[in-house]
Amino acid sequence: VSGRARAIAVIAPSWDQGRWARRLAALDPDRPVAVAPSPEAEGAAYAAVWMPPAGALTAMTNLELILNLGAGVDHLLADPALPDVPIVRQVGPDLGQRMAEHVALHALIHLRGHLGFAAQQAGRVWRPLAGPRADQVTVGIMGYGAMGRACAEKLAAIGFRLAGWTRTPQADPLAELFAGEGELEAFLARTEILVCLLPATPQTRGLLDARLFARLKRDGRFGAPALIAAGRGATQVEADILACLDDGTLAAASLDVFETEPLPASSPLWGHPRVAITPHCAADSHPDELAAGVIGQIAAFERGGADALRHVVDRALGY
Ligand code: OXD
Predict the structure, then answer these.
(1) Which of 23, 89, 110, 232 is catalytic?
(2) Relative to the CA of 69, which ligand 1 atom is closest?
């Protein structure tokens, strides 16, 4: 409608859409914000989405830009009818801070053998266990983008030694970085606590399997390695995680993501004494924190077009 700002549609049916819409409208009062499904949402230029139902974006004939309200875009890219407009995702400091809190907590849980103490407490057992210090243990981060870097900062402050694995070669004073398939072996050979933040792409599907866990470092002060998975469940083979926990290839695991979510009640992971489970909330998106970034991206797009956008998704790479 001429004279009116181009509208935003909020399409996030598994979240509190009204709250996102109210927050976006409060920050950009001249711009209509509509919650889907509605004719207003269907006519909007901008789609602010989290796991939109299949077809919801195809129906938006005025669509110019998709703003993914989380970091991962695997579910968007799985839609064969996804409109050919730019997609931006969340990569900012808020999600980085949350992910870093989660990863630092779980790295310390494994460093200090806390799952063992929890089991002892349940049995009223008083038995001190001494392990290594953080500076004697290497945490290896697979997926060393903005979130991986945020984790590295917190882990370095605690004293951990750090390694990172990336798709293309990078350098970082905080961590020894390894790139690509060719350097995966060297990365795994020094990693004692493996943190996986990788997106789900055809290249990462099922990467965390028994063969990979067997290549982690196990002859240091830390002993058998631990896994912290907080990227996407599609990157892991849960049957292998269980088998490796049971045969000692892995000492323990912290899992925030799963092959099937919610994790089915029948999964043996739930009751495993050396598994810590969280329900995919390591780095949740909060409208109060992220709405300003969404509005900022739209303002940049209206001023400078697609070239002015940040954190644009590369469809071929899948993130
Ligand atoms: C995300 C997530 O992708 O929370 O942001 O999984």
Answers:
(1) 232
(2) 5
Q: Count Cβ atoms within 10 A of the Cβ of residue 76 and give its class: 0-12 exposed, 13-18 middle, 19 or more buried.
A: buried
The C-alpha angle with vertex 152 and arms to 254 and 112, in degrees rounded to 5, equals 45
* Ligand 1 neighbour 72 (Cβ under 6 A): yes
Burial class (CB in 10 A: 0-12, 13-18, 19+), 15: middle
Phi, psi of 153 (to 5 degrees): -60, -45
Residue 233: count of CB within 10 angstroms of its CB: 18
Percent of the chain with pLDDT over 70: 99
d(CA 247, CA 250): 8
Strand extents, DSSP E, the chain: 8-11, 33-35, 46-49, 65-68, 87-88, 138-142, 161-166, 176-179, 193-196, 226-229, 252-255, 275-277
pLDDT, one tens digit per residue, over 213-237 is 999 999 999 999 999 999 999 999 9
Tokens of 256: 């925030």
232 is catalytic: yes
Tokens 């993501």 — which residue?
A: 257
The pTM (predicted TM-score) of the whole model is: 0.96
If you take atom 4 of ligand 1, which residue's CA is the nearest one?
A: 284
Of 132, 197, 182, which is closest to residue 161 (Cα–Cα)? 132
Q: Whose CA is nearest to atom 6 of ligand 1?
A: 72
**Is 149 in the active site?**
no
